[in-house]
Amino acid sequence: MIEGTPKLTQGIHRQLTCAGIILVLIPLGLVCRFVPIGLPQVIVKYGGSFLWAAMVYWLIAALLPTLESIALGFIAAAVATAVEFAKQIDTPGLSAFRDTFAGKVLLGRYFSYTDIAVYLVAIACAAWLDRNVVRRPASKDKEYFRNGS
User: Fold this and answer.
1) What count of other Cβ atoms lies within 10 Å of the Cβ of residue 93?
2) I need a labelling partner for 13 at 20 to 30 A (CA). Which of 21, 83, 98, 114 fits?
3) Domain residue spans in the chain?
4) Crossing angle of helices 41-63/113-129, nearest 10°?
């Protein structure tokens, strides 16, 4: 966190940072998945899944701003995996929701172990970025500039 600032201010700063990241990821994911811009099919399919799982990580980070990246990663992985396994539940209401745009975006339609693997990679990447870029201690920045490396 930011040295010398009260924890409440740090929490709000963290939540705003996470919200900003989410506001970038959502349109990127929607464009990747639904706008025909000539991306290869593998990018359309798995890029959207990657961005969705990264968004799940940052949403949980916004809701639980004091947790460490590793804990957030485990929670995000559990949520993403649970959502994927929930695709195997078939009720008329749930199926009707999955056929809507919101249902396709939020829940998806078809279960896939490959999607779970993509989610785990995305969440690991988000946690790494969170730990090493977003929450980089100010002391490391000072050390970096002091040593010139």
Assistant:
1) 7
2) 83
3) 7-137
4) 50
Q: What is the largest CA-CA distance in the chain?
A: 62
Nearest to 121 by CA among 68, 57, 33, 32: 57
Distant-in-sequence, close-in-space partners of 116: CB < 8 Å, separation ≥ 6: 80, 81, 84
105, two tokens:
């975006």
pLDDT in tens, 77-116: 999 999 999 989 989 998 899 889 888 888 888 899 999 9
Coil/strand/helix, residue 6:
coil
Sequence-ordered alpha helix ranges (H) in 64-137: 69-86, 92-98, 101-106, 113-129
Q: Exposed, middle or buried by CB within 10 Å (0-12, 13-18, 19+), for 30?
A: middle
Inter-CA distances, 70 with 42, 55, 61, 99, Å: 28, 16, 11, 34
Question: Would the pTM count as exceeding 0.90?
Answer: no
Q: Is 19 helix (H, G, I), strand (E, B) or coil?
A: helix
Closest CA to 80 of 52, 44, 48: 52
